[in-house]
Amino acid sequence: MISTFRNAWKVQSLRKKMLFTLFMLLLYRLGSFIVVPFMNAQKVQQLYMNTSQTVFSLFDLMAGGNFSRFSIFAANISPYITASIILQLLTIAIPSLEALSKEGETGRKKIAKYTRYLAILIALVQAIGFSFGFFGEAVVATTILEKSVVVLSIVAGTAFLIWLGEQITEHGIGNGISLLIFAGIVSRFPADIVQSFAMVNAGLANPIFLVLFFIIAIAIVVFVVALNEGERKIPVQYAKRVVGRKMYGGQSTHIPVKVLMSGVMPMIFASSIVSIPATFAMFTKNEATQRTIAKYFTVSGVPGTIYYVVVTVLLIIFFTYFYTAIQFNTVEYSKNLQQNGGFIPGIRAGKPTSDYLQKTVNRLCLPGAIALAILAVLPIFLTKISNLPFNYGGTSMIIVVGVVLETAKVLEQQMLMRHYKGFLNK
Length: 426
Prior knowledge:
Blueprint: H1 2-10, H2 12-31, H3 41-50, H4 57-62, H5 66-69, H6 78-93, H7 95-101, H8 105-134, H9 144-171, H10 176-201, H11 207-229, E1 231-238, E2 241-243, E3 246-248, E4 252-258, H12 265-274, H13 276-281, H14 287-297, H15 302-327, H16 330-339, E5 342-343, H17 351-386, H18 394-425
Antiparallel strand pairs: 1-4, 1-5, 2-3
Helix pairs in contact: 2-9, 2-10, 6-7, 6-8, 6-12, 7-8, 8-9, 9-10, 10-18, 11-17, 11-18, 12-15, 14-15, 15-17, 16-17
C-alpha cells in the first residue's frame, strides 16, 4: 500500500489529485475551528461536559469533535449519510426511483440531487435541535435575524461539506464523504491517546489494559486488511466463436467476489442510525430525558449497552447484504455473461448462473458481516472493563483502515488505467 502511494506520487496527474484531496481535507479541518456566531463558546463546553457524554460521544467522534466545539461543521456529514440511506431504501420501494437508478449517469445525477436536497432538510432540523435544544442556554442571539444566522451557519456548513466531498470524489482520490469522516476520526486519535495515558498516570486505569488496547488495535488493522483483501475466484469459460476466418473466445478467466465487498459503508450507515436517539436528545433540555436516553440507548447503562450491541450487529449485517446487493447485481451479471458467450463450468446459463452467484455472495457476506460486527462491538466491552476510552479502536479503527485501503485501490486502478492509455496511444 505504501509503495502504491509512493508510485502514484511520482505521476504528475495523480500527484495533483492527491494534493487537491489534501487541500480539501485541510479546508475541512480549518473550518472545524470556526465557531457558530452568537454562541457562548465557554457555555457550549460547559453544557457538553455536564451532560452524560455517552449520549453524544459517538456523534462527536464521527464529527471529529465539531459537535463539542459547536463549529459550523457541528452536524458534519451525517445528514448526507442519513439522506443516502433513505434514498437507497426508497429506490427499492418506489418503482420510479428504481427505474431512475437504472438510467445510468443521468439517473445517478438526479438521485444525487434528491439526496442533497433531503440532506439539507435534515441538516436544518438538526441545526434547530442543536442550537435551541441541547445548546439553548449558550445562545446569545436575541433577534430573529441573529437566531436565523445561528441555524443557517450549521446548515451552510453541512452544505459546504457535501460540496467538498463531491469535489474530492470528482477531482481528487477516493470517496470524498468517506475521506471527510476519516479526517474527522483521525483528528481525535491524539487527544484520545493522551487521555488514556493521563488516566493511567493518575491511577484511574490499569496500564496492562492500555498495552492490551494497542495490541488489539494492531490486530484489528491486520484483520480488517485480511477481510478487505479476501476474495473467492469463480472460474468463467468463454465459448469459442468463428467469425470469418478468425476464431474468438475460448479463454478462461474468473469473477473475483470479495468477502467484504461493501467495504466500510455498513459501519458508517450503522453508526449514523445508532446515533439517532442522541439526535432526539438534542431537542430537549430536560436532564431526566437525557439521562433516560443515556441509560437505554447508549453504552452508559446495561440496557443501553444491550441495545447498542444488538442494534449495531443487526444493522451491520443488514447493510452489508444491502450494499453488496447494490454493487453486485447477480441477475445483470448473469445476463452479461450469457450475452458475451461466457459461462461458469458446471452451471447452466441464465437463472441457474444467477442463483449460483447469489448463493456464493451470500456465503461470503455472512462471515464478513459477522466479523465486522464483532470488531465493532468488542471495544465496548473492553472499555467497560478497563474504564479507558477506546475510540482509537473498534468502529473508528475499522473505518480508518477501510478508507485507507479503498483509497489505495482507487490509486491502483487509476495507475492501471494510465498504463493502458499509454499503451493504446503508442
